[in-house]
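Run Amino acid permease through structure prediction, thanks.
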Amino acid sequence: MNLFRKKTVDQLVADSTPLKRTMRTFDLTMLGIGAIIGTGIFVLTGKGALTAGPALSVSFLLAAICCGFAGLCYAEFASMAPVSGSAYSYAYLAFGELIAFVIGWNLILEYALQAATVSAGWAGYFNKLLGQFGLSLPVELTAAYGTTPGVTTYFNLPGFVVVLLITWVLSIGINQTKKTNDIMVMIKLAIIALFIICAVWYVKPSNWQPFSPYGIYTFQPGSTQPYGILPAASIVFFSFIGFDAVSSSAEETIEPNKTLPRGILLSLAVSTVIYIIMTLVMTGIVPYQEFAKFIDAPVAGVILYTGMNWLAVIVNIGALVGMTTVMLVQLYGQSRICYAMGRDGLFPKFFSEVHPKHRTPFKGTWFFGILTAIAGGFININILFELVNIGTLSAFIIVSAGVLWMRRTAPDAHRGFKAPGVPVVPALSIIFCLVFIAGLNWETWVRFAIWLAIGLAVYFGYSRRHSKLEGAGNAGAPQVAAAKAE
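Sure, done. The structure for Amino acid permease is below.
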């Protein structure tokens, strides 16, 4: 029994079922921005400002650097193995089947929990927008059971419906998906630009003093929560989760060897600049201590602070659009990971069946879309949100280590893009990820261990015996051949 049997690039490409190739660099960049810009600006900036003060912009920069190092490693793998599956496929290539399955299992957790969690935030902004027009839903249908203190709630109807609508868009074709995402991202960026242009006149440089009131890392008297630039970076790291989903679109991308690296790195760069500008403007308008008054909706709070109430409705729309694109990209990435695992035999064939008309993994998309909608509708999943972080960081570590390993074992393999500064860049990516993981609480580790235990039971109970490599008796070859993308 070879638990670490590998695939070559030729095998990965040969096993792929070409989906409809329509994605270009612009579409991939919009896909990445759609995944990144959303919750970070409209939710996490409040808690981040309380944790780091005006130095929150530095925290965003540190989180972006960590993701940038990982992004360079993703870009190299994407240019070498332009197939669906993202980190799952890259791990199959570098470390073998068992590691690949574990990473794929973690990515499913990452994408599902983030999409379900964002659906809860989306519902909150949707209810606020209805209120601004004098409308309302029955309070029992505004949130999952027990998520609103002092109020009896049973079901998150808005979140449930929006996830199903996004699933429908994903299921009917990549053309519809990319057009929907491109339009929403452009609307979101326009609203953010409008906010910056209107709000920058209210900035008072004195509010940036002291710029870093808590330093790099410190504990305040009477508090168990750390403060400073590093703890805030761990919080806002969530903001960048999702750019890795861009690499899941390899089989729907034109010239993936070139366009995938560009899309990954451009989306990270643009999003980082936006985050830094937004946080400087927001902390320049409102003293950082004041964010405690509107921690759940910091951008709306800044608007009310300036008195520009007319802008509130527009920003609420921007928040809804922003969170919608995040869910769209997460559900897209999830369906493509499951598609790749089903194609390899590690999941039932059901997940890899491609719709003859839409050329999408139709059944798998709906299966996980419905599960995610139910999770967001009924379950209070806020306590599980850190699992998104640990699942993503583990994938980043494997991909970064994979670049180091492949440079050693397959130095002559075809690479359309080479990460610069190897071995330093992958090593720094691993170090950053380990630092962020070390900051997670022990409950997260326990839940993560339980999830891994379930995954290993699935692998040894089903996946190992049904793997296509098992049927072929292939122990995996370490050599990597040059692959030509369609």
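DSSP finds 17 helices and two strands in the chain.
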